[in-house]
Design brief:
Elements (H helix, E strand, L loop, with lengths): L12 H7 L9 E4 L14 E5 L4 E5 L24 H28 L1
Parallel strand pairs: 1-2
Antiparallel strand pairs: 2-3
Length: 113
């Protein structure tokens, strides 16, 4: 559900104070815990350290990001991989292919000598 137009976008005042009167290239990473803050055009070019619950993820704001929220660019969950029998078979086949490629490369270098 979107925010009401009469309320306007949610841009935190503390973040605007931090970037007020500063140049994007001279300012370092601006740390913030406010993931719900919408990106406004004044923020373009600045680098924000958006907290994801563990570390601050550096987010360089570009023009395409205007209107989105800071938290969208700092994932809170780390995707490892899908598991299961099929995944194990694929991993085993990949490992066998690497071993075969290494053996063939070694054999070609031995025959050239």
């Amino acid at each position: 559900m979107t925010r009401s137009l009469k309320k306007g976008p949610y841009v935190d005042e503390r973040i605007l104070k931090k970037i007020e009167g500063k140049k994007p290239l001279e300012t370092g990473v601006i740390k913030t815990w406010i993931r719900a803050c919408q990106i406004s055009p004044e923020m373009v070019g600045f680098t924000f350290g958006v907290y994801n619950g563990k570390v601050h993820v550096d987010v360089l704001v570009t023009e395409d990001m205007v209107g989105h929220r800071l938290g969208e660019f700092s994932p809170t969950k780390k995707f490892l991989r899908h598991g299961g029998k099929m995944q194990k078979e694929q991993d085993a086949a990949k490992k066998e292919a690497e071993i075969a490629a290494a053996k063939s490369a070694k054999a070609t270098t031995d025959t050239k000598k």
